[in-house]
Amino acid sequence: MYSVLGLKGLIGGITDGFQETVFAYGQTGSGKTHTILGSPQELGLLQLCAKELFAAVFATGAEEKHRRVQLVCLEIKNDEVLNLLPEGNATASQEADIFCHKGRRYGYQRVTVWSYEETMVLLQQAIASREVGSSYVNSESSRSHMLVRFLVKTLRAEHGQLAEGVVGSLTLVDLAGNERESGTNGTAINVSLTHLNRMLVKMQDRQLDEWEPQICQGVLWLEVLSIAGNELCSVKLPRASTLQSIKEEISRAVNCNVTGSDLLCFNDETWEVPSMQPLQPIDASRVEVTWVKKEGFLIGDQLFYCGPGLALNSLVQRGARCQVKSGDTFHNYFNVFFPESRCTLAVHRQHLVRMRPGEQRLPPGLQVGDVFYYTGPPRKGQGNALLPAGACGEVVEPGLL
């Protein structure tokens, strides 16, 4: 099936920004779940696609590209959307996301993964949480739809600098069985599959864009990012919205107050307009804005980046130094911090500190010479260096882990 569908070539395009989806659709007992998820004796499309995806991401010649793979796993039943990925995993980088449907807010996790093995560990836990039930055909029939999505962000290096990146995705969907039995559960499954079938027919007939004029005329989607490029939320607003109403809507979406002094940056400009006046016209239906927190630093402060390596407009390394250039306004958030190197430095506020990372105090009880061991799944770091379980590190000097 993997070869017949040509999935290897399909996955190769994901690193170039293509969006691909694979559905398993059919009667209960026809083998949909086995085709997607496989079994201990036979790998499914999920395992085969994941292996090929990581091979493509870390392929030879990819040194000039900076890539990140994120994993999403959802269960959909009736009008409920559930996050299946385990929360609070200390060995994985997690980001919370929110979307709205029929007036309700649903949260889910996007987990950054660095290897096939780490991905399979997370998915095994997710699959075990999925709801199953019995039908007259199958004793363990899937009673819900399961969606697994890989997001691949790629930034290419050109002339020593990172160019604007692209985001591709691979989505695999194991749909609930098409039921002939009566009852509320089977009816709900059939209704959702009917809507899916209508959507697929519209896609084949190129009629799926019937909603586009309405969006372009009166609605604006805002993808809200942190300075580090992390997606915070997505909100839908009337085009006539004021800056004040936008900040209030974002505050509700992220459950964190956006103050009047905070700025929202669109491209390289900030929206500095009277709070009760509509924003200037934007020639797009969906745009990205960056939320800049204007607090906590003073003019002339020497700051150090203490977070993980980030591939933004430039590669931001731990320990990079910058200086607060202006304390009265954020005319252009790319110019708020300027590094001593030639590349632009734009980082999330929570990763900026007034001391070098090596000068930070150790937690109580830690001393020079203490040895630490890594107990998580194997992970790849910079230069494809492998961090295996059991790798150890040592406190080599006061304050330096």
Automatic annotation (TrEMBL):
Keywords: ATP-binding, Microtubule, Motor protein, Nucleotide-binding
Annotated binding of ATP, by residue: 26-33
Cellular component, GO annotation: microtubule
Pfam families named in the record: Kinesin
Gene3D superfamilies tied to this protein: Kinesin motor domain (3.40.850.10)
Transmembrane segments: none
Kinesin motor domain residues: 1-198
SUPFAM superfamilies from the UniProt entry: P-loop containing nucleoside triphosphate hydrolases
GO MF terms held by the record: ATP binding; microtubule binding; microtubule motor activity
Family: Belongs to the TRAFAC class myosin-kinesin ATPase superfamily. Kinesin family.
Protein name per the record: Kinesin-like protein
Protein's organism: Effrenium voratum
